[in-house]
Amino acid sequence: RMREVDLGCGKALLIKESGEFHAVGHKCPHYGAPLVKGVLSKGRVRCPWHGACFSISTGDIEDFPGLDGLPRFQVKIEKEKVYIRASKQALQTQRRTKMMAKCISLSNYNLSSTNVLIIGAGAAGLVCAETLRQEGFSDRIVMCTMDRHLPYDRPKLSKSMDSHPEQIALRPKEFFCTYDIEVLTEMQVAAVDVKSKIAVFKDGFKMEYNKLLIATGSTPKTLSCKGKEMENVFNIRTPEDANRVVKLATSKNVVIVGASFLGMEVAAYLAERAHSVSLVELEHVPFKKFFGERVGRAVMKMFENNRVKFYMQTEVSELREQEGKLKEVVLKSGKVLRADVCVVGVGAVPATAFLKQSGINIDSKGFIVVNKMMQTNIPGVFAAGDAVTFPLALRNNKKVNVPHWQMAHMHGRIAALNMLAHGTEISTVPYLWTAMFGRSIRYAGHGEGFDDVVIQGDLDELKFVAFYTKSDEVVAVASMNYDPIVSKVAEVLAAGRTIRKRDVDAVVFLSFRTGDMSWLTGKGS
């Protein structure tokens, strides 16, 4: 059982499990979700919104997203009363940054050598650096990034487009100085010599390393039509891109190409600000491959009710200009759309071209191939995040690419632990969310190749849970206004248990309508 208790100057989450009491912070440090509405199972609590998991005995973060753990409070039982002792500061911050080492040997290095080099400063790179310091690693760590900013909350670029870099920074500048995590901004690696253990930068600078993490993420695809280089045509890659799109789109005509997560989130964000928003997509329903046709249609209807116009089963043939600026988007169907701004969201490719001659194993699609410990085929070289394929235990160790924010965090942690020879294998359930018009779709599992969708609830009311099945087995779940069902199912899958198609009705009834959680801790299916 979990109960939120008020201690006068702040709240705590009081937990009773297996006869023992624990008290921790009551809010998820990621985005502030109330953990009392989450899922308690086997010594940890899972966030109802985005799936982060915390140990109830230590408060440590065990699954992601987010960087910090929960404060842990003393609990004492006297005469059948429970007493909680907590510091006011911990109650007010509701987060705890784990103790970290600092570098004690910087003087042993020249500028062009480091023990650990991390290429990429997204979630995977930052979590790797932080995990190394948390584990007591006291040697030099250097991160490098093409970006001009320190690591930031990239999902907000399409969900909260007018956010400034300092508002979405994952850590303040002082943090990196305090824990001796060096970040080289606007630095692009052009090649890696794995035999000499040297990274060669675009400007000719070279850096020796002992251990290497490649976490370069992906590069947005561009249009191939005439006019693609024109002003006011954007791939949203940086906070500056997002800010500029909002500024240019206000009270203007916007065309978005691609009903991807990015494209749909941008359309939702701009719908109230722009004069018109048009969305062009090759499929006949948004999200069909990911959420299935019925859920896709329900989402499409929500967008249409918010003034977004869809042009489906067509592509862009030309972008036309007037006085050097975008004026019209011409579709292959012959339709001509007025456009002052165009945002391109037609997918991405792994940012791994610089590794082609390196000897690091890369598959036919450009993804870096790693094992369960995030190791490449080259000793001492690890890879993480959107640019990799790895064995997913949930799908019988099938090699998959999972370009989710939560997964990048976990990759970074596993890579760091194995740089330190811990022998830790990745074991996590993919978890993602998307936010549109103040509503969120949550998703857990890996539904690639699903052959059926079992839906409970009301799609028209946008209150539903969808179970994605493959050969009678539930492989993923999505929901809208049905919290915390996705986090509950994620806990079942994380425990290695199987949900069959025939059991879906019972799962929804037990977990949502009755609140009975005993099926979580049972054995077998």
From TrEMBL:
Coiled coil: none annotated. SUPFAM superfamilies: FAD/NAD(P)-binding domain, FAD/NAD-linked reductases, dimerisation (C-terminal) domain, ISP domain. It is found in: Mitochondrion. Keywords: 2Fe-2S, Apoptosis, Electron transport, FAD, Flavoprotein, Iron, Iron-sulfur, Metal-binding, Mitochondrion, Oxidoreductase, Transport. The keyword Transmembrane does not apply. Induces apoptosis through a caspase dependent pathway. Reduces mitochondrial membrane potential. This is Apoptosis-inducing factor 3.
